[in-house]
Amino acid sequence: MRIGILGSGNVGQSLGKAFVARGHDAKIGSRTPTSDKLRKWKEAVGGRSSTGTFAEAAAHGEVIVLACSGAAVEDVVRLAGPDTFAGKPLIDVTNPLAFAKDTSPGLFVGTTDSLGERVQRKLPTAKVVKCFNCVNHETMVNPSNTDTKPTMLICGNDEAAKATVSKILKEFGWDDVMDIGGIDGARWLEALVPLWVRVATKKSTWHVGFKIVNG
Amino acid sequence: MRIGILGSGNVGQSLGKAFVARGHDAKIGSRTPTSDKLRKWKEAVGGRSSTGTFAEAAAHGEVIVLACSGAAVEDVVRLAGPDTFAGKPLIDVTNPLAFAKDTSPGLFVGTTDSLGERVQRKLPTAKVVKCFNCVNHETMVNPSNTDTKPTMLICGNDEAAKATVSKILKEFGWDDVMDIGGIDGARWLEALVPLWVRVATKKSTWHVGFKIVNG
């Protein structure tokens, strides 16, 4: 499958490497696609890895992954070209983190709206699926790096797109995937992240997740 | 220990019964302390159980438990008499749930404030500890009713009060308790609850919780 990844930080690089390792063709989009950082990524990953502009990566993808910072989402979507997303599954990994001095981060949107819903409103013909947002980039592609695998919580309005994402999650080793409903669920998946940061700080590791337990 | 419980629904009744079963002296406060419902509760629980007005229950408690609906918090605190809370640990079990027709509940406060913080501001000399808010009333007093015990997440500004609450949690069978910091953490513990409702709906059981897993 051709994957377009918008964002070249740890998240974009880890997901890109994992897609290529599983036989997919992944292009990372960036403002600076020929940077040293991305040249090294491409060299290290090999196979069907490539880099390009945000517009090139979005056009490349049968599935698009939005993996930039929450604050950059509007710019990245504009630079990629909103029409490019039409009809495609869009895996939204972003979080609306509001960073503050001397305290753990909060969110710049929540409770009655979310970044996932904003992305869906901005790209009404994209099939947005919130996914991967509640774990570290290393856990995303290796859920076995916690003592028990966490539950991966996803949401979105399109059933077929969620099925595609669930298939990808299975390839990445996720056994316990739970679909909590429409994209409005992003309000609560994003709200897990300030809690996750506090828990990770307590545990002194970013390899932390939430596992659903039930009777 | 003398416990004052403000609220006589499932949560207040289950916690009251569990406190008495562990040798404590629990008084449930209610607008209607002589109702059939509470008479039956007292008969069934026996031991050192009693009922009274909100003011009587709050005065009774060395530890007070706020276990009313989120919408009733302001009234209940006013009826109990704010001075009665001075210097006491106050276990805040409440959630600011906003119920909506045809959809899962949201929250009426969140992201930049929380019901826990509102309670702490209203009762500045109380030692508010958010606790128990993310599980069903049956799980609160029996964490073994899920396949693996969930993690109990708590927060509050007073270390001694959190130590008292942790001792109570141990008596109730909670092995895995995590203190995530100050009462502002209630923003994220309360935001777990709309997610918890969605997960419970998916799992078709209220005996559902979140377990922290880490590497």
Describe this structure in words.
2 copies of one chain form a homodimer. With 215 residues, chain A is α/β, with parallel strands linked by helices. The first copy, chain A, has 8 helices and 11 strands. In chain A, helix 3 packs across helix 4. The termini of chain A are far apart. Chains A and B meet through strand 7, helix 8 and strand 11 of A and strand 7, helix 8 and strand 11 of B. Strand 11 of chain A pairs antiparallel with strand 11 of chain B.
Which helices and strands occur, and which strands form pairs?
2 copies of one chain form a homodimer.
Chain A: E1 2-6, H1 10-21, E2 25-29, H2 36-45, E3 49-52, H3 54-60, E4 63-66, H4 73-80, E5 89-92, E6 97-100, E7 103-107, H5 115-122, E8 127-130, H6 137-140, E9 152-156, H7 159-171, E10 177-179, H8 186-203, E11 208-214
Parallel strand pairs in A: 1-2, 1-4, 2-3, 4-5, 5-8, 9-10
Antiparallel strand pairs in A: 6-7, 8-9
Q: Please state the average pLDDT score of chain A.
A: 98
Which two chains share the most extensive interface? A-B, 41 and 41 residues
**Using DSSP, what is the number of strands of chain A?**
11
Order of helices and strands of chain A: EHEHEHEHEEEHEHEHEHE
- Tell me about the biggest sheet of chain A? 8 strands, mixed
Give the % helix of chain A: 25-40%
Return the structural class of chain A. Answer: alpha/beta
- The separation of the N and C termini of chain A measures 38 Å
Q: Could you tell me the radius of gyration of chain A in angstroms?
A: 16 Å
* Poorly predicted parts of chain A: none
Main β-sheet, spatial strand arrangement of chain A: 3-2-1-4-5-8-9-10
- Strand % of chain A is 15-25%
Quaternary class: homodimer
Shape of chain A: globular
Total helical elements of chain A:
8
